[in-house]
Amino acid sequence: MSSTVPFPGVKTYVDPDTYEDPTQAVHEFTKEIDPPRIRIERVIGAGEFGEVCSGRLRTPGKKEIAVAIKTLKGGYVEHQRRDFLREASIMGQFDHPNIIRLEGVVTKSRPVMIVVEYMENGSLDSFLRQHDGHFTVIQLVGMLRGIASGMKYLSDMGYIHRDLAARNTLVNSNLVCKVSDFGLSRVLEDDPEAAYTTTGGKIPIRWTAPEAIAYRKFSSASDAWSYGIVMWEVMSYGERPYWEMSNQDVSIMQNFSWMTKNMYIYLFLLKRF
Ligand code: ADE
């Protein structure tokens, strides 16, 4: 974790775990929503902590907006509630058109909820796979430009994402991409792509920079590596990075020179087609 302030005078990210009482961080960085303002419409997915629903949020004096609602299922223990709300404390500190926007939280009644802006086209990886070949290069690069802008903002705030991938990016009806899935170590527990390394860490190998895999040196530079993988995912309409090569082959290949790497990929593709 970076301990230097990237731009003195510019607001920087505060890790909710540095609060003695993480509930204090929730109070500080999020707004409590009065539950009658929320109308849940349907279930759209399942998260680690409970269902994800779509619905509407009313704000007095404002137009009703579409929202996604993450719920914490009943029977949770205190550390699960804390981990669940950690994501909201992080998201609530950000304000950028390419970062998913937190509308607020419900913590004073059950179920506990996190309410964010609704992204009509869902996650970027499945969206691209469903629309293979349908966009111009300008549109694809436009999506990438948005993600780059969001990641630049996170880097300026001193926040390291650690799990940037097309599956953790959401797309709205205007094709605007927004970075999502915050929560530090927890996001890796939740990510089906994350595998255990020889050092015991859980890491999405294909998206992670070699130095972060080898000795957990996560930084904005390792986020930039992941961004490079996302560029490849977007331009290939959601193909799997390194295709079906094993995680072990991917790691071995990353230590090759670029020329050997090219030969390796060439031989792999010859065998494949
Ligand atoms: N799935 C998870 N979060 C979402 C969001 N904000 N909008 C639409 N689908 C989602």
UniProtKB/TrEMBL annotation:
Positions that bind ATP: K70, R167
Protein kinase domain boundaries: 38-273
Membrane topology qualifier: Single-pass type I membrane protein
Reactions catalysed according to its record: L-tyrosyl-[protein] + ATP = O-phospho-L-tyrosyl-[protein] + ADP + H(+)
CC per GO annotation: dendrite; plasma membrane
UniProt-listed InterPro entries: Eph_TM (IPR027936), Ephrin_rcpt_TKs (IPR050449), Kinase-like_dom_sf (IPR011009), Prot_kinase_dom (IPR000719), Protein_kinase_ATP_BS (IPR017441), Ser-Thr/Tyr_kinase_cat_dom (IPR001245), Tyr_kinase_cat_dom (IPR020635)
Top EC class of this enzyme: transferase
EC assignment: 2.7.10.1
Keyword Heme applies: no
Keywords: ATP-binding, Kinase, Magnesium, Membrane, Metal-binding, Nucleotide-binding, Receptor, Transferase, Transmembrane, Transmembrane helix, Tyrosine-protein kinase
Localization in the cell: Membrane
GO molecular function: ATP binding; metal ion binding; transmembrane-ephrin receptor activity
Residues involved in Mg(2+) binding: N168, D181
PANTHER family, A to Z: EPH RECEPTOR A5 (PTHR46877), EPHRIN TYPE-A RECEPTOR 6 (PTHR46877:SF10)
The protein's name: receptor protein-tyrosine kinase
Organism of origin: Nothobranchius furzeri (Turquoise killifish)
